[in-house]
């Protein structure tokens, strides 16, 4: 299942995983997008069509602090080493996620295993909190399947999604702009 709020985009096995909205979707190995889009995802797709991918992913598009929360449930078959490698590569995005001109996209990236005793973790194992300076930076980082034009999405994050997908059972993404 994938819960994807705000501007996330669904994976094609995480290659696209992260969609705008707050609906639950299953991850399908060969599906690029869910069959239905929730309200936020529809609004996002409409916005991209109206303003274009370059504006949507521009660093100055809707400036302000944006938080991108990502939570993974690993497949039971994922080894400890594979789980550690997924997290290592995710954390590496702090320094490797850059625009074509070399400008960093991510302001900060924090991560850790689930350790709440509230019994409300939905089976999720590990969480990541990524911070951006604008919605444009977040949009560039998230990329496909909403954004497809070369130079308008982060190829490093795109490659990470493809790498991580086989090790993940569920992903939850929730984005918000700090008020």
TrEMBL record:
Span of the signal peptide: 1-31
InterPro entries given in the database record: Dabb, Dimeric_a/b-barrel
Source species, domain of life: Bacteria
Database matches in SUPFAM superfamilies: Dimeric alpha+beta barrel
Keywords assigned: Signal
The UniProt record lists the keyword Signal: yes
Coiled coil start-end: none
UniProt keyword Ribosomal protein present: no
Domain Stress-response A/B barrel stretches: 66-176
UniProt cross-references to Pfam families, sorted A to Z: Dabb (PF07876)
Name this protein carries in UniProt: Stress-response A/B barrel domain-containing protein
Organism for this UniProt entry: Acetobacter ascendens
């Amino acid at each position: 299942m994938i819960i994807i709020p705000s501007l996330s985009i669904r994976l094609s096995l995480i290659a696209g995983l992260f969609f705008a909205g707050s609906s639950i979707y299953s991850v399908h190995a060969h599906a690029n997008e869910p069959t239905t889009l929730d309200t936020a995802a529809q609004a996002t797709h409409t916005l991209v069509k109206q303003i274009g991918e370059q504006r949507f992913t521009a660093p100055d598009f809707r400036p302000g602090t944006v938080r991108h929360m990502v939570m993974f449930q690993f497949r039971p078959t994922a080894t400890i080493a594979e789980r550690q490698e997924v997290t290592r590569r995710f954390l590496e995005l702090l320094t490797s996620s850059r625009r074509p001109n070399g400008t960093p996209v991510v302001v900060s990236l924090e991560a850790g295993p689930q350790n709440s005793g509230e019994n409300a973790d939905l089976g999720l194992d590990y969480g990541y909190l990524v911070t951006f300076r604008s919605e444009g930076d977040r949009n560039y980082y998230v990329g496909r399947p909403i954004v497809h034009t070369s130079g308008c999405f982060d190829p490093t994050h795109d490659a990470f999604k493809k790498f991580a997908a086989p090790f993940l059972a569920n992903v939850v993404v929730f984005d918000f702009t700090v008020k």
